[in-house]
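Entry:
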Amino acid sequence: MEKSPEIRIALVQTDLHWQDKTANLAMLEEKIWSLKGQADLIILPEMFPTGFTMDASSLAEPMNLTICKWMKQLAAQTQATITGSAIISEGGKFFNRLLWVNSEGIIEYYDKRHLFRMANEDETFSSGKILPVFNLKGWKFCPQVCYDLRFPVWSRNGWDDGNAGYDIIFYIASWPAARTSAWDALLPARAIENLAYSIGVNRIGVDGKEIEYVGHSAAFDFKGERILDLGETEDIRIVSFSASKLDEYRTKFPAWRDSDSFQIL
């Protein structure tokens, strides 16, 4: 499918109720129900139903239960694809799973690859092994979760006869205020090195572990230039990306031709 001329993406920067699925789903539903017709994709933060927690045994749920059904309902209501991560149990394991739910109720997913050992995430969750590419209106999306941002090899864009592996790379996060400078630096870097648009959606507020988050959700073009910045306040903003501008830049500046070949084992 050929890319649509533009794509509209809503970034939801919000505080979260600590380990309270009911409160978070109700709060988010109130925030995004009015986005119908305004966005093609709605991006929520990492672990949006609970906040970033290691209490997986009591908060996890299997696929196609409350969270998945909620996302299907909101996707149908807004006529947009909705994405964000939740704690999912499967095969006796827990995953920090990014769910991608379209308006027809079809679910795809990506399991977070790089688990944040400094919070013992690697002792609670299982790491994802596959990096999918999602398609929406002909645009190809590379999904990433928080700590993945520090590992550019995993997110490296692939090229096949000049065709990019993806057009947009996006990160959903619970990225603490203490390391905001890294977030601000790495998001445009991912755009530049991959000749793609990049998006980061982070939460704000203070969680149950007294960790502070200040947002800085943003969108960058393929040259690393900031085109949207949500700052440190609770907000929902929509950004539009141009297919022609992306394709034109890739043609005029084909740095991908000189990229190194490698294989992730």
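The chain has six helices and 16 strands.
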